[in-house]
Amino acid sequence: MWAKRIGITVLVCVASAGCAATPPGGPGSAARSNYVAMGDSFAAAPGVPELAAPRGCHKSTNNYPAVLARRLAAAAFHDVTCSGATTDDVVNREQRTDHGLIPRQLDMVGPPTDLITITIGANDVGLAGDAESCQVEAADPKPCAAAFVVNNVDRISSSIREQVPVWAAMIDQLRADAPRARIILVGYGIFVRPGGCFPDQPLLPNDANYLQAKVDELDDRQRQLAADKGVEFYDTRSLSAGHDMCAPPGERYVEGYVTEGNNVPLHPTALGAVALGNALTDYLVLSENR
């Protein structure tokens, strides 16, 4: 592992059509040999078989980074994604899990690293917990979205704005620690279609629209940040359209509140992890051969 003085992370964003920023003109060989995957549970894919070490991170051996690494035939692959991770856990501190402390993710990045993907940010701004709180459980349900806006101030939007400089600093740190690396921020994509699908998924129509708008806002902020910092953002919204929590179980890329099998609510399915890993592979190969 690589010793670090200060920590900072990066975000990974996914898309089928392409990324917001043009691939940097720096490192760019078609054969990426040292790949570090970073991020939270959207990258880790808890519930997708099989369970990878360390147990506390609840990550899969078949998450999108693992699919990408196999497709690229990466000579070295370090998956440090971890469920529950925030940017602080990635860059500044050990992460506390239900099976002990996990080293900060940045420790695995060093001069040999030539590819980094990161999906991070939802836990920074509380989106995961907020989405869980919107699940309808009462016989006479009340909308949840109004609880996030007080005195005309949207708490989630404010948190996203406040987090942008933190994400910018982590990108700078990644670039300093891995100057040869191609850095890709991978986004969260579409969790729920317009209006949702109540009662099949217990989320009221206006709440579905509000929560997806906040996910879009996070993705859009990271897309702009990537363009400003000269790294890449892979937007997954085109890829995930039609495969949200309201899709038939066999077509979902992300689970809803009502799940199938061992799938984890509001997280990628096995199908979604494979689709994203394959889409990222195609993007990397095509862009490096241009």
TrEMBL record:
Domain SGNH hydrolase-type esterase residues, every copy: 37-273
PROSITE patterns per the UniProt record, alphabetical: PROKAR_LIPOPROTEIN
Single Gene Ontology BP annotation: triglyceride catabolic process
CDD domains registered for this protein in UniProt: SEST_like
GO molecular function, one term: triacylglycerol lipase activity
Cystine crosslinks: 57-82, 134-144, 197-246
SUPFAM superfamilies: SGNH hydrolase
Keywords for this protein: Disulfide bond, Hydrolase, Signal
Transmembrane residue ranges: none
InterPro entries to which the protein is assigned, alphabetical: SEST-like, SGNH_hydro, SGNH_hydro_sf
EC number: 3.1.-.-
UniProt-recorded name of the protein: SGNH/GDSL hydrolase family protein
Organism of provenance: Mycobacterium paragordonae
Lineage of the organism: Bacteria, Bacillati, Actinomycetota, Actinomycetes, Mycobacteriales
